[in-house]
Amino acid sequence: MGKAKTPRRLKDNEAQAVARTIRVSPQKLNLVAAMIRGKKVEQALADLEFSRKRIAGTVRKTLESAIANAENNHDLDVDALVVAEAFVGKSIVMKRFHARGRGRASRIEKPFSHLTIVVRAVEEQEAA
User: Fold this and answer.
1) Contact 117, 41 (CB under 8 A)
2) Which residues form a coiled coil (predicted)?
3) Which CATH architecture has domain 14-20+27-90+117-121?
4) pTM of this prediction?
5) What tens digit of pLDDT does each residue of 12-22 get?
């Protein structure tokens, strides 16, 4: 007798990947996440490949993981995937101090973030 299986939060044509505790502020990570929202996965991967942001490599890795989850776990067609959602959450904040003049100190905060990417399979629209 065990617990009942938790129902799936996503629809049948969706898959997701989550990257936790990424060493970048949520504000900076959201700039890169906004760049790929709503795009086809091929275009999103190309944009991340040539982005000059430091964190773009980690976002690309997470997107590739979501694509692999869609293909291997949910039998979705990779060519029909779009980035349905890409959202950022706050994680821990490491607090450090920096010595200042006259015996004072100031606080330095080093924030971390979580990233969730959801890909969705969509049917191709016929060009009329």
Assistant:
1) no
2) none
3) Alpha-Beta Complex (3.90)
4) 0.91
5) 999 999 999 99
